[in-house]
Amino acid sequence: MTSSEPGPTGSEQGHTAGGEHLDVGAYLLGLLEPAERDAFAAHLAGCPQCTREVAELGFVEPLLAEYAASAEAAGIDPAGPAPRPDGRLLDRLVAEVSAGRRRGRARRLVLVAAAAVLVVAGPAVTAVVVTADSTPGVVAVAAQQFTATDPTTGAHAVVGVDGKGWGSQVSLELSNVQGPLSCDLVAVSHTGERWTVTSWSVPAAGYGTTGAAPAALRTTGGTGLQPADIDHFEVRTLDGATVLVTVLVTVPVHPA
Length: 256
Prior knowledge:
Elements: H1 10-17, H2 23-28, H3 34-44, H4 48-56, H5 60-73, H6 87-98, H7 105-121, H8 123-130, E1 144-149, E2 156-164, E3 167-175, E4 181-189, E5 194-202, E6 217-223, E7 230-237, E8 243-248
Antiparallel strand pairs: 1-2, 2-3, 3-6, 4-5, 4-7, 7-8
Helix pairs in contact: 5-7, 6-7, 7-8
C-alpha cells in the first residue's frame, strides 16, 4: 500500500487478518471445496473489498473455460491427469491473483491467464503462455449488444453477448447508478434458470452519473447459457431486493 492509498476499513482489516483475502483468487480459479465456496459466497455478500476484487478479476472464469476448450481442441484432456503445481507454487498463484487489482492491467492479465492455464493443463502449457509476445485482452468484440434504461431507477445498461462452446461471454457497461451498493448481473433463461455472471460494488459517488462520479462501470463475466437460451439479464442489488435494470435479449432467428 502506498502512502496515497486509503487504509483498510475495520471490516477489511479483520478480513485480511483472518486470511480470507486469499479466497478471492481460489474462488475465481475454482480451487475451493464446495463447503468453502459456499462460505466464501456468503462472506462476499457482506464484504465490499472482496466484491470489488471479484468484479475486477471476473474474467478469470471465462478464461478457464476458454483454455479448457483450447486444450481439448489440441488433444489434451483438461479433466485428465496433468502435472499440478506443488502446494507452495499454488499458494503463490492464488495470492498473486488476489493481489492483482494492485498491479498494472497488462501484467495482471498475463498473470491470471497463466494461472488459469496452469490449473487447467499443467505447468508445461503455462510456460508457453507466459513467454508469449502478445498480451491477452479482457473482452473480445461482442457478437451482439442489447441496451436498456430503467424508467424508475434511471440505470442504463449495455450488455454484450458472445457465444462460446462453453456458453456465453458477457460484457456489461452500466451508468447512472448511485451508490453505495453491492450488485450482480444475472442471466435468466427462457425456462427461468438463473446464472450469476459477475458481481461488483458501487461507490457512494455512483457510476456514470454527474459531477465527480466515476465513469460508467465496465466489467465482464460468463454464463453456461448459450445466447439463444437467454431471455434477459438483470442488474440487481446483491440481496436480490432491487432490480436496477432489465435488459431483454433478442437473438436473430437463422433459417434452417
